[in-house]
Amino acid sequence: MTTRILITGSSGQVGFELKRALALQGELICPPRQAFDLAQPASLAAALDSWQPDIIVNPAAYTAVDRAEDEPALAQAINADAVAVMAQWAAAHHALLLHYSTDYVFDGDKTGAWREDDAAKPQSVYGSSKWQGEQAVRASGCRHFILRTSWVAGIYGQNFLKTMLRLAASRDSLSVVADQFGAPTPASLLADVAANLVQRTRSTQGQPYGTYHVAAQGRTSWHEYASYVIALAREAGWPLQLAAAPQAIPGSAYPQKARRPANSQLDCSKLMQAFDLQLPHWQPAVKQIFDTLDNLK
Ligand SMILES: NC(=O)C1=CN([C@@H]2O[C@H](COP(=O)(O)OP(=O)(O)OC[C@H]3O[C@@H](n4cnc5c(N)ncnc54)[C@H](OP(=O)(O)O)[C@@H]3O)[C@@H](O)[C@H]2O)C=CC1
Ligand SMILES: Cc1cn([C@H]2C[C@H](O)[C@@H](COP(=O)(O)OP(=O)(O)O[C@H]3O[C@@H](C)C(=O)[C@@H](O)[C@H]3O)O2)c(=O)[nH]c1=O
Ligand SMILES: [Mg+2]
């Protein structure tokens, strides 16, 4: 029997890559938002009943971090209540749920990289809604993987990497926060890891389900990340308005509605050991995304 795989949010960065990465793993169901609207959690069970997925992969989320501060109910519906419905359905139907979460569940006050069992203490509505989504998955008792990641970038959709390239093309000056640390993670890597985990659930051995951190290796700041991307664009001959490197500023000089963690570096050794996987360093990972964008130009 063909495995039926539901992918939510397939118009997003990770969802787009999942369509490619999971294409050989089964029959993909990729509903547009109107056909599976996470803002309407009560509508989801009927759709799941009609599709009967064996695997639900859920990269869909309310990801506008600042806007979430003004729309907490919507963020909660999409990032937590809808996730609870999917998890409960998966538990009742013995389906596997693969869900994505974020470094923003942590407060950022740790020295060193965050481990899966470190205490979550979200500082924003987005982070809090994602944490509640995670808890709903665990409470449901369904077979699940929760993949916590950070600073996602890819060729498809919106992200910081593309924003920096756009601003460098049109502005004389650019100031970027230099006291928030983490690691940019390719959307394609997240989809490939998902495909690997799904593939392994087909083996007869017991599966180490649970929560895993997945991010590129090493640590950088938003400022160093922006500087690196802009240097790549300069080297590749992109016409940039920006003459110098971006200016480094403290987070306090870049007021935003939502508070971001100062340190959101994720320790990914649990995933690497459990599945014998290697994860790329953030610089080659970012360069690969840049090169793909450059080729598509
Ligand atoms: N982006 C990042 O930097 C990070 C993301 N994550 C997590 O990774 C996951 C994937 O993120 P990413 O791919 O970047 O997200 P995107 O913002 O690129 O995509 C989000 C997707 O969710 C869909 N969506 C939003 N609202 C609804 C809704 N009401 N009903 C159905 N679908 C909806 C969007 O659809 P539409 O196109 O219609 O808007 C889109 O397809 C998320 O869980 C996110 O929390 C974790 C860490 C960092
Ligand atoms: C555009 C811009 C941003 N910044 C700062 C703001 C912020 O602190 C940092 C990154 O900006 P962003 O808007 O990409 O940040 P943000 O939307 O908070 O990114 C987060 O998204 C969610 C979905 C996640 O889960 C996180 O892992 C993380 O990727 O850079 C500057 O300093 N200068 C600028 O010109
Ligand atoms: Mg953002």
Automatic annotation (TrEMBL):
So what does this thing catalyse? dTDP-beta-L-rhamnose + NADP(+) = dTDP-4-dehydro-beta-L-rhamnose + NADPH + H(+)
Among NCBIfam families, the record links this protein to: rmlD
Q: Cell division: present as a keyword of the record?
A: no
The alphabetical list of record keywords is:
NADP, Oxidoreductase
Entry's EC annotation: 1.1.1.133
Recite the UniProt cofactor note for this protein: Binds 1 Mg(2+) ion per monomer.
UniProt GO MF annotations = dTDP-4-dehydrorhamnose reductase activity
Q: Name one Pfam family in it.
A: RmlD_sub_bind
Which residue numbers delimit the RmlD-like substrate binding domain?
A: 4-293
**Gene designation per UniProt:** rfbD
| Record's protein name | dTDP-4-dehydrorhamnose reductase
Q: What class of enzyme is it?
A: oxidoreductase
CDD domains, alphabetized: dTDP_HR_like_SDR_e (cd05254)
The species this protein belongs to is Vogesella aquatica
- Needed co-factor(s): Mg(2+)
Query: Pathway involvement?
Result: Carbohydrate biosynthesis; dTDP-L-rhamnose biosynthesis
| Function, in words | Catalyzes the reduction of dTDP-6-deoxy-L-lyxo-4-hexulose to yield dTDP-L-rhamnose.
Q: Does the record carry NADP as a key word?
A: yes
Lineage: superkingdom: Bacteria
Regarding protein family, the annotation reads:
Belongs to the dTDP-4-dehydrorhamnose reductase family.
Cross-referenced InterPro entries: dTDP_dehydrorham_reduct, NAD(P)-bd_dom_sf, RmlD-like-bd
